[in-house]
Amino acid sequence: MANVQPRTLSGFMELLPARQAQFDHMADTLKKTYALYGFTALDTPLIEASEVLLAKGGGETEKQIYRFMKGDTDLSLRFDLTVPLAKYVAQNYANLTFPFRRFQIGKVYRGERAQRGRFREFYQADIDIIGDGKLDISNEAEIPSIIYKAFTAMGLRRFQIRVNNRKILNGFYAMLGLTEKSGDIMRTVDKLDKIGAEKVAGLLTGEEIGLTDAQADEILKFIAIKGSNAEVLTALEGYRGRHELFDLGLDELNTVTKYLSAFGVPESHFAVDLTIARGLDYYTGTVYETTMLDHPEIGSICSGGRYDNLAEYYTDKQLPGVGISIGLTRLFFVLEDQGYLTDALNTAPADALILPMTEDLAPAIALATQLRAAGIRTQIHAEQKKFKQKIGYADKLAIPYAIFLGEDEINAGVSAVKDMKTGEQVKLTADEAIAHIKAGLAKLNEGLPILDKGE
Amino acid sequence: MANVQPRTLSGFMELLPARQAQFDHMADTLKKTYALYGFTALDTPLIEASEVLLAKGGGETEKQIYRFMKGDTDLSLRFDLTVPLAKYVAQNYANLTFPFRRFQIGKVYRGERAQRGRFREFYQADIDIIGDGKLDISNEAEIPSIIYKAFTAMGLRRFQIRVNNRKILNGFYAMLGLTEKSGDIMRTVDKLDKIGAEKVAGLLTGEEIGLTDAQADEILKFIAIKGSNAEVLTALEGYRGRHELFDLGLDELNTVTKYLSAFGVPESHFAVDLTIARGLDYYTGTVYETTMLDHPEIGSICSGGRYDNLAEYYTDKQLPGVGISIGLTRLFFVLEDQGYLTDALNTAPADALILPMTEDLAPAIALATQLRAAGIRTQIHAEQKKFKQKIGYADKLAIPYAIFLGEDEINAGVSAVKDMKTGEQVKLTADEAIAHIKAGLAKLNEGLPILDKGE
Fold first, then answer.
1. Do B323 and B393 reside in the same domain of the chain?
2. Of A14, A365, A384, the CB nearest to B88
């Protein structure tokens, strides 16, 4: 009867149960952290009218869109969570309270060229704070601090959030009289990490952009400013007074740096970095990228920034905001690929497996009910199989406790609880079993999905 | 600049934040309950190769599929979670441990005719237990007991899980020599609730099915067997010994009934009901439907049953299973529509809103950090707004506690914590504030999303 080979499309991540549990633990850590900071969950459709989703139009993204007709309707799958947020806020403006803090963790779709580590269906995990007309600068420090907390809670250690401010960049180019060319320049400078200073200089003075050697030098000197955050900020003070926008950006960057510390991000985990520009014209203030210190080649694992006009295609209301996005599927792939995922996390589908040794299952069911009422995830293995196979089931799934319940135990009002790791087996009443298992689980459930072996 | 009207497609549910919190609470209740019973979470792609997804082919469903080409690839959006499960189990057979218990809560797509309360994108929440070759009957009692626990935990009271066994029906028709026609008969009998006994008899003796009056009478008499579960089971004993399949089905139904009680489902919440057949040939043993007692017109809110061959299109392995599915989006719509959703649930995006009264936000940030570390969901309202507007923000979002932090409080090492409901305001240290707020939240968080006003 079987006539179709079961397969999953290339570019679509589908995980085995234990890996799925690790992924879900990471997603849950994000949800819990976002909620602690007062963000509300949104869930928008995966399909939107193409006219709405592609209101901005053009660009590289549009070619990758999953777009199709259903009857007479032109539909598209969302390619990020920002455009649906813009739509949502514009559409529900009258029913929302600002500043509007929302998180969304959801799948998005891009028809990328099939390639190892590139996904066509992938999760993004976004937080944004949207103001009505105005938005305080402190939000620009709080957003990356949330990411710091979330990554740390997953077990990630060696990462750094790199921060810059677009006003500083735009102000600097204005000083040099290069405002018109600033977009081209920033896109070029963005390649510094990849192609090096010499090639960047070549591109800047090339025909297309056409800077003088002196201008290119000044730009490279500027973006070469490095050192501790205090050193970089001090170096930037040397440019103060030459352009209003630059000065405003520097004030913002000082404030963000100060509040990042207040929000608990240690100096080791954020760096003022003038090379961060984010390619998009969309951003107008603070911008972020996040790198894994031991794997800079992976690029940013979490990026975002401040923007002035979230929903300009849908409403004339001025809706400034600040947001950040994690490409969760790609991050998970990278973590697995680089050996960061450990089995320290309890990924078993159950905490206890009851093995009934009597034909009547009622006593086993009663015990399971008690365990579950106490919050212990419990299965009953009621299949007609050999004892060895049943124990093998617990073993394969790494279920930490097996509980044997035979005639003798039932008559004595106990069950035999076996710690599958140590092999230790004790006869306990239901209440004792619950306490015993919970004590063991408390330790077991301290495990995190990520083990960051870096210093 | 605004040039596109923001809108959401018809048939796609998109909720405002407080409603979304209610929906998420229901979904989380399902997840927690499923996990307590040892089910592992799966997350399969929304898009599959059409060839794979439509392996079974034909049927009403295929017309509703969202199917499209991307480049040369023929793709379809999943229309349920069962076919992707079948694919997954067949594909990963060697890496899974059986019985395999999985839950999945995810969106599925059907191009239904647009109609109030009908959704084109909707959540299904499924649990299934898949055996390798065999599967014990006790699983057929455990599955509906999980649904009982989950619905009860949401606040739903007046519902009933109706249980039958396809072997009883098939055995009964075999007794009458009507095996060949049993499919047609069952589809007709299924309409009993909607069109009444007389019209059903008319259809049964009509040209298409062609039963004798005596046969139709016997069928109607059989499915009219009503009463307490014990009464129905006793009446069924009267047919014992006339057909092997019937007898086997009756044994199974007796066992399921017995274990349903053992699993803690009260007699008031399940009924042996011989009219339940489930239209699909797929089911071979116990079948379930769940009705809201005060709204039978809504039909089943949770259905499923036992099947013998999950993945016959993908593998020659015999994979019997039992599963049940909740149409969560539709259920949510119905609950809202019928006035079951209450504001008893705490749907605020935060538990506490800090209102800093000083220019330097550092003390407010430090307090927020302490509250968050204690698990209190906290926002800082740092916007340049009038005091009244800031309090209005807490009010509109139903944030239960507002915390004022001015120069005086900072110097005294306290903050002023206001209970937004009672208006009571007290000056407390950070530790006192945490204890105070947590005590209040404990009560507040007892609220459930559903208030079932029925007796």
1. no
2. A14
